[in-house]
Every structure is written in C-alpha cells, then in structure tokens.
Design brief:
With about 290 residues, the chain is α+β, with helices and mostly antiparallel strands. The protein is built from 5 helices and 12 strands. Helix 1 packs antiparallel against helix 3.
C-alpha cells in the first residue's frame, strides 16, 4: 500500500556553511582543523553538518530523533532509521556561504517483514548556494519507520542483529585501500554533537539496550560513510562526483570496522566489514 500527496509540498530551510562547524568535523576526522578557511570549498559529503532542524526539546520523538526537513505522516510507526543515501555533487559549497535546501517527500511504502510492519519513504534534498539557480548537491535519503519494540521482549543478543551479507574472499584481497575504524563512545558523541543528532540509540546506552534491544550503542550510518569518503579521497586523489550508500545491518560501539575501497573501473566500491568479516555498510563513488 502506498500513500503520497500528488503535489508534495516543498519545504525550504536556510543555513550558513559556518567555518567553526567545518573545523569541528575536520578535527573529528583527525585533520588539522585550521587548514580550512572561509572561501575554501566544502569537501563533498561534509554537507551533513548543514540543515539540522532546530527541534524544540519538547518536540523530540520518543526515541530522541529530531524533526526532519519534511513532515512525515503519523502512521503509528514511532522508530525512525536511515536506510541509505544517494548524492550527486553538481557544484561546490564555499565555506562561509549562505545556503538553502529545498526538500520534497516521496511516497510512503507500507510493508511487512520478519520484524513486523514497517514503512519506507524517500526524501529529496536540493542544496543551493546563495542565489544560484542550480543546486550544488542533489541528495535522496531513504528512511525506515518501524514499530515500537516491546521492552519486555527486547533482547540484547548480538545475533538478533547480525549482518546477513558476507564479503567474498577475493574482494577483500583486491581492496586498493583499507583502514581500521573503532567507533568508540567519544566518536559517537562528537558526531552527534556536530550534526545536532539527539537520536538516543547513539548515546543513551540504557535506552539502546533496554528499550530497543540492541547489544550496545548503535553507530550512526553516516560515520562509516564519511570515513569511507576520506578513504576514497586518499586513494583516488580527487573529490567524488556521486556517492551512494546503504546501511545493511546495525554497527555497534567499540566493535572494530574494516573500511575497504576498491577501484572497479569507473566506479569505486566502498564498504565496511564487522569483526566477523561481514559487510554491514555498502557504498559506491564515481
């Protein structure tokens, strides 16, 4: 069953690509934060620091999630997660520039799975610099709305959230670049602070384990995403023109991730493996 407005309302949000915020993200990535100055171009993918809706404390969702840039229908599915992202970088965002974002919600797709009822919705964002007519970034984000978890039945077993996709042995051997990332609690906290993300599964251990049944704090999917973009830049020695990612399975605090990049002709394959060698995050860049 699908439900969507025939003429979805375009919601607009203004922001400034502020130098202090850019420097905080650079520091989190272990770069020299003072290497960035006003007028420099924002690295592709770093726009995640922009347009975080200033949600009044009393209007946060029960899971702590802040408001999105678009209004979602109330369909009785209180848990919100991001499933994937597709970006096309058609221009540059100068640091210090005023920017605006136009957002359009897509149709809501209601589905049933092993975990019960859930819904998928795609949101389109177009980011413009100053008064430019063409967007610098066109982005589509896939959101998943899920049913509430019965706290009595919630199990902290890691097996309940184990990834289902395994990396082919030959693919690992062929990786052109790799690094280990251990997403610890300070990293989760800094990223949530920089992006103003109050979703409780990323910092509230009691909530993550007791209310939602996870074995630990959940790593925001944008964390491996932004570190994989760093790996791509280092290996390809350029900025990506496009970037797409999918969250395949939850990733958890203090569990090491192996980040891999493979030049597959015109496309770079990017992915993250957990400590068992299973793929939990998959992406590509051109």
């Amino acid at each position: 069953m699908n439900s969507a407005p025939r003429n979805p309302v375009v919601e607009t949000l203004d922001d400034v690509c502020a130098l202090p915020l850019v420097r905080r993200l650079a520091a989190m990535l272990d770069h020299d934060p003072f290497a960035w100055r006003n007028g420099d171009f924002l690295p592709h993918g770093w726009h995640v620091i922009l347009f975080n809706v200033p949600t009044p404390q009393s209007m946060l969702r029960a899971d702590g999630a802040a408001a999105l840039a678009v209004s979602l229908p109330d369909i009785g599915l209180p848990r919100l997660m991001m499933g994937g992202r597709q970006c096309r970088f058609t221009g540059e965002i100068p640091i210090g520039a005023c920017v605006r974002r136009e957002s359009r919600p897509g149709e809501v797709q209601l589905k049933h799975g092993r975990s019960g009822r859930f819904a998928l919705i795609k949101v389109e964002h177009r980011i413009f610099v100053e008064d430019q007519e063409e967007p610098a970034v066109v982005e589509h984000i896939d959101y998943v709305l899920r049913e509430a978890v019965d706290a009595e039945a919630a199990s902290p077993s890691a097996k309940a959230h184990a990834p289902a996709t395994v990396v082919a042995p030959g693919r690992l051997a062929q990786a052109d670049a790799s690094r280990t990332l251990v997403p610890d609690a300070p990293l989760l906290f800094r990223y949530s602070s920089i992006t103003d993300n109050p979703h409780r599964i990323h910092y509230d251990l009691a909530y993550a384990t007791q209310a939602e049944g996870y074995p630990g704090l959940v790593v925001n999917g944008s964390i491996p995403s932004i570190f994989l973009l760093e790996l791509f830049r280092s290996a390809a020695r350029r900025e990506p023109a496009t970037f797409s990612s999918r969250n395949l399975a939850p990733m958890f605090c203090d569990r090491p991730l192996q980040l891999r990049a493979l030049n597959d002709g015109n496309t770079w394959r990017l992915w993250a493996e957990d400590e068992n060698g299973q793929t939990c995050f998959d992406a590509s860049a051109t």
